[in-house]
Design a protein that fits this description.
Layout: E1 17-20, H1 23-28, E2 35-40, H2 73-90, E3 91-101, H3 106-115, E4 119-128, E5 144-151, H4 162-168, E6 177-180, H5 204-214, E7 220-223, H6 230-237, E8 241-246, H7 249-260, H8 267-273, H9 287-291, E9 300-302, E10 309-312, E11 318-322, E12 325-329, H10 331-339, H11 346-349, E13 351-352, E14 366-367, H12 368-385
Parallel strand pairs: 1-8, 2-3, 2-7, 4-6, 7-8
Antiparallel strand pairs: 3-5, 4-5, 9-10, 9-13, 10-11, 11-12, 13-14
Helix pairs in contact: 2-3, 5-6
Bound molecules: S-adenosylmethionine.
């Protein structure tokens, strides 16, 4: 860690590095609103009273580290409030937070999140395909953990790569119950004696879904409780920048070693897994089609069947014959009126006949959205040329 990586409130935050120490202290040194996505796996406050044993009397290694011990629930709540406030300060206005926990802590965290004006978007249940059995047989097998996804405030334009998640899920909408195995096999970090390096190492598959779905390549992902480095490893692999904070030097060393062995996927492949979602595409007002000469005042538009027609006026409004006389308004308003429905996306309803200059090269009418995409592409092209 170099000195200038921890300087207070520098203009840009450190990137792609692990800060060793307390997350409150380190977050206080970051500039405000510099982080795009936070994943937090905070202490659970398990409050284990006695050693847990398997039926063969071997000891179950659970979470009994000092970092998981708090004097009281009030103490834990204070800690939670402090780190959530710190996260809120460093999150960009359109940033979002994922936090994972068990029944011991997640309800307290959820309540404090709402107290602090975060806006909960979903809770996700991670169903473990291979949970640890309940050895005493006095309760249900604890087979899931809960994640809360919240944006910084109501109305934030948080990132949600809906299409990428759908593609990841065989073209089905991604649901809020995720069936994934716990971290095991080659992924699980172990020391020379085969003992797990970290008691709560999360599976990379869980972070893959979150980082792929809720950030864009190049954005900054922060994990204030980095542990064995899972968040950083997946962020690096997916071409995101990352920043991890961890108080235990042993875990910091393990995470650094793991990161050194992680290769990012190549640029083109990242583009494929995270295309720009339609919702995030730059807005193109209908009037731009006229200004760019793709449409002219007087041009006729039709519905896809060619039975309903509307005329384009110079100010970007349309006129059409409606059920109760002429209607005039935006492409959306007129589209809705001529169909007698409450709402219509005019970009996908109205079509225009091809003509020279529009450059369609097609005989069949094209839907307005095609012309809109052409404008977006020409804008992107001129941005790239500088
Ligand atoms: C539940 S574990 C995170 C495990 C991690 N997600 C992984 O996959 O390895 C919580 C981590 O937070 C660290 N920790 C606890 N309190 C901290 C604090 N105040 N500042 C920074 N790290 C802290 C602990 O050392 C522990 O490694």
């Amino acid at each position: 860690m170099t000195k200038n990586k921890t300087r207070a409130n520098t203009k840009s935050p450190p990137r792609n590095t692990i800060l060793h120490g307390d997350c409150l202290e380190h977050m206080a040194k970051l500039p405000p609103e510099c982080v795009d996505l936070v994943f937090a796996d905070p202490p659970y406050n398990l409050q284990l009273q006695q050693t847990l044993r398997r039926p063969n009397q071997s000891e179950v290694r659970s979470v009994d580290e000092d970092w998981d011990k708090f004097a009281s629930l009030a103490d834990y709540d204070r800690f939670t409030r402090d780190w959530l406030r710190a996260v809120r300060r460093v999150l960009s206005p359109d940033g979002a937070l994922w936090v994972i926990g068990s029944y011991h802590n997640i309800f307290r965290i959820g309540a404090i999140l709402q107290e602090l004006d975060f806006w909960i978007l979903n809770d996700v249940v991670w169903r473990k395909s291979n949970p640890m059995p309940n050895f005493r047989g006095r309760r249900f097998t604890n087979a899931h953990e809960t994640l809360i996804w919240a944006c910084r405030a109501k109305g934030s334009r948080y990132v949600f790569n809906y299409g990428s998640l759908k593609a990841l899920n065989d073209d089905l909408q991604m649901r809020s119950d995720w069936y994934l195995p716990i971290c095991n096999g080659h992924e699980r970090l172990r020391d020379e004696d085969g003992v797990r390096v970290h008691p709560t190492q999360k599976p990379e598959s869980l972070l893959y879904r979150i980082i792929l779905g809720c950030s864009r390549p190049g954005q900054l992902v922060l994990d204030p409780f980095l542990g064995s480095g899972t968040t950083a490893v997946v962020a690096r692999r997916l071409g995101r920048d990352w920043l991890g904070i961890e108080s235990d030097s042993g875990y910091v060393a393990a995470a650094r070693e793991r990161l050194a062995a992680t290769r990012p996927v190549a640029g083109d492949e990242i583009d494929l897994v995270a295309p720009v979602e339609k919702r995030d595409a730059p807005r193109v007002p209908f009037g731009l089609l006229l200004e760019h000469g793709l449409l002219r005042a007087g041009d006729m538009l039709s519905d896809p069947s060619g039975r309903i027609h509307a005329r384009v006026r110079a100010d970007g409004t349309l006129v059409a014959r409606g059920v109760h006389g002429d209607v005039c308004g935006s492409i959306h308003q007129v589209g809705a009126a001529v169909q007698g429905v409450g709402a219509c996306n005019g970009w996908n309803f109205w079509c225009v006949a091809p003509r020279n200059g529009r450059g369609d090269g097609a005989a069949a009418p094209v839907v307005l959205d095609v012309l809109r995409q052409r404008i977006r592409a020409s804008r992107e092209g001129s941005k790239a040329k500088g």
